[in-house]
Specification:
single chain, 182 residues, mainly beta, OB fold (Dihydrolipoamide Acetyltransferase, E2P), six-stranded mixed β-sheet, five-stranded mixed β-sheet, 3 helices, globular
């Protein structure tokens, strides 16, 4: 006998980051791997831990704790990397969004939960320790709330590109502007 979820029930992978329980829809999850073999990239924001080689593909790894709070997470025994598929916004109308694999570093993966739509409350407009636009909703599970992440916002490739772009003070010095000779 199959226990297929009803149409208004979605499955979410739950995990902890800095003692808080979060969840991401399993349709966004590709795999979960052990933390390790990270190559650090110089001059990246603190929330980008580095890149990993995933079957020949270069996959950036985002430290969710640092993305949310600005404080780098420490690696623990149960720390792992959840590989999610994110998509960038099309740059021109009619263009298809590009899909990218991105690793998110989490303290520990918990379980897959089925949460009915009736048990999901809207995101709070204040009081959360992370940006309100990162929250898709608050799932009620066993009398507790699980923060459902709007993973496309959290991993917004366009926003991260802006954050990693060099500021004028970081760009190479070109010297003073040339004086016009006339």
């Amino acid at each position: 006998m199959s226990t297929a979820p009803s149409p208004d029930t979605q499955q979410y992978l739950t995990f902890t980051v800095a003692g808080e329980m979060f969840a991401v829809g399993i349709l966004n999850i590709k795999e979960i791997i052990e933390y390790g073999n990270l190559t650090e990239i110089p001059m990246m924001p603190g929330f980008i831990r580095g890149v990993i080689n995933l079957r020949g593909a270069v996959v950036p790894v985002i430290d969710l704790g640092a993305r949310f709070s600005g404080k780098t997470s420490s690696v623990q025994r149960r720390t792992c990397i959840v590989i999610v598929e994110a998509q960038s916004e099309p740059s021109t109308p009619g263009e298809l969004p590009e899909r990218h694999d991105i690793g998110i570093m989490v303290d520990a993966v918990s379980e897959v939960l089925e949460i009915p739509a009736s048990q999901i409350e809207p995101a709070p407009s204040f009081g959360a320790r992370i940006r309100a636009d990162f929250i898709a909703g608050m799932g009620k599970v066993a009398g507790k709330f699980v923060i459902l992440l709007a993973i496309q916002r959290v991993l917004s490739l366009d926003e991260m590109a802006l954050l990693t772009a060099p500021t004028p003070s970081q760009s190479p010095a070109l010297g003073p502007p040339a004086a016009d000779g006339g």
